């Protein structure tokens, strides 16, 4: 079959590799119909993720059709249209039983190398999904492939970050960053009951996209975010900040925008080891900070239900739909920031 | 001043009465600009509420302008545009301190007679509001008088009933009854993260109003509610039922529609003493049932924030805007079900 | 092997039956070391449960040693000391994924007949446990067999009923009934942060057992429960009532004892179809009522951790330890209320 | 009257000052019967708190008898035995209405200088309490003065830190620091449902006190905390860490002890401006961090109820009971760490 193969730093190629087969009786093989390139794929592309050896198949975002299931699979069957989380979990271990699926003792990330379970990726014609009952979801009939794909990763990541903030209905939210994840955080904040949502980004066109979703746009090159938020909130600051950029400057900004008693939730796309946490300010202001990789299994059913009901549409972030064979071009465009979300049609 | 006076069963008149004055130092006098007739005013009109003597001023829904405040009032001042809950609470007693404001030891309902604190009502040019700091809210500048009025009673009642159900984002909701409260429950369910919301009513025009809000309409004269819900939910039933009619038949229906592990929340407009609770079914299906008068103080700030953000618009339920002097006609129309929500402009 | 066989109404015998074998690859066979007789076993004994045919093996409370596992079982292995819930669940279906394990689409109750999955019971030398990964828990090394056994049924049932009440730390609780389940509700209420716990029972000796656990005893033959509770709570009533008897009189009492805004949680051992629910009182007082079969999987890990830490000791309710061969005598004593909890040593 | 007066760095004296009088109609004057010296009083003593001028009366922990109330005070009356939070709140502003009493727009701290509302302190014969209805609590009759005193500050601080951690029943907790606040965190963790609680301190005698409360002692001079916790928890780490020392080394330790998906809650007695937050570790491990000054009003009623029920006893931390006149000696002993909790009997 065809698959997107990591060849080395800044080098991917579509090549022929053997098709995956059922290994465990709880496995399924999925024929991928659409895959996508994720921001975190670029970390591998840039050679930053230890344990990602040349020759491995990339990708962890996908939808497809179940091609074959092991004899212990009960929830899906051949022919089902399915989506699954970017990370796999067993559903039975101590971590899973307390809902910490992203800490699963048998877990891993598709196409993310040896340190993450050594699973072949989903940018391919077929992908093997372990613990299929727990890691595949049938896509509701009213949900398109493209919409469903986002439930397996960045939409549910953004949604989870908003949930992690403990947002209460009627509260105000500032989302820092208006890339795909930031825009989905805006959507999620509204679905979860936010009153006013501020969208902050250096790029004016991006916050305009957020404005179209109902957010108050703050193009931060030409407008002071703190001043604007203070003006609208009567000097209080927002109840919740979602940090969707990663890195020290935007984390710092998050703590400037949040009100006393508020919460900062970082979506988590960072590569920095440390952050100078404002301890004294947080002590006086009674703040909560949360950061972590997404816990997709916790929220994917809710997100699929919301997609089915038409309450969220993540496909507005798609800029390119390429054939799987064009993946090399897709990586290049995405890496050079000439593309938003890139889908690979298989 | 002019006020709507209860004269006896099915008899109200607009008459001249003395203006209210500051009694406690924590009181405020509000000049009413818009009042409304509530379904529960009809209980008095029908002579069903003990302790409602002829001569009393009716009404508990209002917005207005602060006319005067006692020396201990700090949160509002003369000239502020305000709204307040239909029931008053002190904010300091044991019940209030645990958030059970509707169980306040010093509480009562405006214009509801001796058994409810003996407060003069708000269908008048002026109304005295006790514990003004705790019972008045400044109306945000982007919220119209008419929208704000609903925050003091039926919108927040409906919103609270949905919150009381413990609705989780992505869950499905059936709202039984599509009168004003039912429609506001539909709005609230969406704001609080529902995926699909079913609106059930015998009157087709009413569920069509709900459909315009995004609900799946079930005109129950021509469509079997249980069959329709089972079809859409794959035979499961809904996660949450909001019962917004009152009375045994609709409560019974509620328990037919809810899934195992689900919740039934009654908005509470009932006059029946008992209900034959389906004990065995609930035991097997693990159900929760909640009924109670609204706890407006708990939710009014969130509701005002959501109104300000434009996320809810309750004014679509208004059918008549009359002058205060026309209150008699307003009561008649409302009682004969020839009107939806009736506002009285003062 | 030896097993306790249902022969007909009021008739059980220990007989030889074939040993169970692995059927599904996710099964385990457990060599039972201690089983127990549950109040709900008596419903079968009395011929009240449809689908319980003579010849079936009884019992759903057990601890034991894993004897054999299917090839897909990962969480336990031969030789592990284990306990499991009285009801089995798959852990993967829609109900399980939302935590409603007691509504599992593939679930059932061990030894409870055709209507409950047709599983052989655990009052036997060996029992087959389906979905072993999800339905067996390794017993922590500091927890005795006898303590662990209760985590699989009545302790976790009582604990779950208290959790279902939404008890907040510092709140007051009345537990109606001081049989084994009632006593465990008292223990659970304390562990979950209750301040004062009242134990109400007609039998004085029983409430004295509760008093030894720290409860305020109310022997209701000689003391008026409502008067006593009002005296202690300053006329308010309790925040939470746990109804652990079943049936109309005690449910009625529950609603007399609860404060406005409070919650009634029924443990659920009832055989009545209907209950005359006090609708008007509940409307005025803003009450929540919850009833349902226990959801053991949700809470068993927490309960085992609390047993391990020595924070609960359910074995004080044991009055008889018989050999499996004496099961007939055990059923008779328990049925005639001459025994508290009866254990069967295998 | 006699009062403890701040004279300058490391200098306090008991002097005669005028008695306080009712200023606002919602004020009360309390005749103090017991006051205490708090760790945070030492910050003033050391000259570290801006706006604390020589001549001011110190102290914010107290119990006493209501001497006089303003005409708008309804909840307490002359002769009532009362306790109150160290910080005062109005109960009506936007912050208070959302439960952020520690962010009250009219709030302050008794005896903490100009920057904290300029209120005279409680280490005196009399103290004026503003917003008395909201800032005084009647002490339940079964609760001694000494026990109640702790509800107004450090017990409720510790309790609140545990609640802020989102502790679930059955979870494990590590409390770093076994001074008075740390010991009260241990007590609180048990009351709130913890299974195992680890107490970590360099001083062996202190962790032995924690062991007497049921904790697993870790004298960290002679035992590696991480190794011990990993041994007991099967290598997982604890669900929750309460950091009750303040400062970088113990915060760093907190992040070493917590499991993936866990939470670190700092009690907040720090004077450091920044903390090098382990961003990458937290991202991978999905961690939550919370720090803030205590929100006493939120929890004081629950804590008083738990004291009344005998579920917590904070007086074990008292080492010295001095006369008010001996305050100078009390400060010296406490500052030189020759005393635990010092009470001043008035």
TrEMBL record, chains A, B, C, D:
Q: Which domain of life is it from?
A: Bacteria
Q: Which cofactor does it need?
A: Zn(2+)
Looking at the keywords, is Plastid present? no
Q: Which InterPro entries match?
A: ADH-like_C (IPR013149), ADH-like_N (IPR013154), ADH_Zn_CS (IPR002328), ER (IPR020843), GroES-like_sf (IPR011032), NAD(P)-bd_dom_sf (IPR036291)
Keyword Transmembrane assigned: no
Read off the SUPFAM superfamilies from this record: GroES-like, NAD(P)-binding Rossmann-fold domains
Alphabetized GO MF terms: oxidoreductase activity; zinc ion binding
Give one Pfam family, short name only.
ADH_N
Q: Which UniProt keywords apply?
A: Metal-binding, Oxidoreductase, Zinc
Q: Which Gene3D superfamilies match?
A: Medium-chain alcohol dehydrogenases, catalytic domain, NAD(P)-binding Rossmann-like Domain
Q: Where is the Enoyl reductase (ER) domain?
A: 8-344
Per its UniProt record, what PANTHER family does this chain match? DEHYDROGENASE, ZINC-CONTAINING, PUTATIVE (AFU_ORTHOLOGUE AFUA_2G02810)-RELATED, ZINC-TYPE ALCOHOL DEHYDROGENASE-LIKE
Q: According to its UniProt record, which protein family does this protein belong to?
A: Belongs to the zinc-containing alcohol dehydrogenase family.
Q: What name does the UniProt record give this protein? A: Threonine dehydrogenase
Query: Which taxonomic lineage is given here?
Result: Bacteria, Bacillati, Bacillota, Bacilli, Bacillales
């Amino acid at each position: 079959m065809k698959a997107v193969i990591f060849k080395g730093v800044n080098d991917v190629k579509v090549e022929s590799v053997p098709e995956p087969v059922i290994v465990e009786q709880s496995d399924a093989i999925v024929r991928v119909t659409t895959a996508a390139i994720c921001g975190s794929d670029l970390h591998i592309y840039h050679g930053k993720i230890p344990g990602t050896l040349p020759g491995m198949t990339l990708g962890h975002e996908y939808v497809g059709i179940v091609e074959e299931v092991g004899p212990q699979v009960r929830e899906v069957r051949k022919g089902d249209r399915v989506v699954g989380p970017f990370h796999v979990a067993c559903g039975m271990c101590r971590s899973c039983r307390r809902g910490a699926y992203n800490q699963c003792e048998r877990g891993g990330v598709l196409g993310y190398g040896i340190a993450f379970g050594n699973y072949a990726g989903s940018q391919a014609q077929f992908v093997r999904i372990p613990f299929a009952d727990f890691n595949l979801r049938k896509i509701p009939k009213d949900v398109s492939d493209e919409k469903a794909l986002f439930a397996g990763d960045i939409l549910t990541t953004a949604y989870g970050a908003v949930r992690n903030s403990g947002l209460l209905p009627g509260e105000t939210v500032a989302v820092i960053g208006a890339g795909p994840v930031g825009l989905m955080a805006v959507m999620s904040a509204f679905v979860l009951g936010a009153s006013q949502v501020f969208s902050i980004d250096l790029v004016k066109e991006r916050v305009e996209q957020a404005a179209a979703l109902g957010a108050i746009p703050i193009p931060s090159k030409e407008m002071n975010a703190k001043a604007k938020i203070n003006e609208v909130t009567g000097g209080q600051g927002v109840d919740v900040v979602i940090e969707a950029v990663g890195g020290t400057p935007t984390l710092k900004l998050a703590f400037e925008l949040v009100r006393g008693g508020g919460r900062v939730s970082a979506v988590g796309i960072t590569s920095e080891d440390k952050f100078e946490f404002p301890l004294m300010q947080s002590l006086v202001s009674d703040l909560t900070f949360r950061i972590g990789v997404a816990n997709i299994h916790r929220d994917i059913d809710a997100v699929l239900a919301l997609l089915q009901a038409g309450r969220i549409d993540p496909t507005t972030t798609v800029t390119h739909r390429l054939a799987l064979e064009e993946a090399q071009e897709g990586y290049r465009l995405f890496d050079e920031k000439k593309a938003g979300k890139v889908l690979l049609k298989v």
